[in-house]
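Journal club prep — side note

Before the paper discussion, L.F. wants everyone to see what a predicted structure for a comparable chain looks like in token form. Sequence:
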Amino acid sequence: NNLNYYPMNEDLFTNPTLSSRCIFSKILDENITETNLLKNVSQIARYTINRTMKEGVQVREIDIFNEEDAKIFDEINRDTEDRIDFEIRDNTYFKSLKNNANLEKERDDLKEKLEQGKVNAKKATNRLKEFDENIAIWYKKIDKIKELKAENGNVINLSCATFIESGQDLIYFTSGAMRKFHRYEGPYAILFHMMKYAINNNFKYFNFFGTSKDFESEEATDYGVLQFKRNFNGNIEYFMDNYEFRNAIGKIWKI
């Protein structure tokens, strides 16, 4: 105050021209590797990321100067402002679908053994029930995929994000996600992909960027987004206020 700096008591969440008072970040020390990364996030994040891998969600870098990529990016950001990069169904997904055929073969083999009296009847009956339930689940997935393909084509754009490399920080800067494809959890797939990128490129911090000062209240504007970030087991960093500086002739700077 003696130097003519005056606290504004405002930040990014009340004035978009200012910096955020708080950020959420995760330290990437030598104990966190690509191999054990999933052990260093919450159970919710671990389960969700594993599900995206099983369902074949893919991640790629886009070229914002490419007209087609830019159109995708813009469309996702207009639809919602939620999360991460760009997802494509690939061979990984269809490999997982092949599990359905394997299940049917195993079920038929077990039926044959049961009819021949080669296995315990009670155990085999219970196991057959499990096979039937799992096969039914896979057929529901196949039907849903056919429906999505007919409506949207072979490639479905789930979500997008921008990241900034700044010194020791890889910053998760902006993001968006398509509301109607929310259940495929594109944002989790992208963050997992980019956290591995940060580890492999020796960044010290994965910076999830700003959060409002009201990080305990469910009424906070970004409460849901903060809970999403918290699933990656980081910490809130609280900085000094934004300040106005007024010099002797009255010119004002905001810092």
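L.F.'s comment for the group: Residues 218 and 224 are 8 Å apart (CA to CA). Keep this in mind when we get to the figures.
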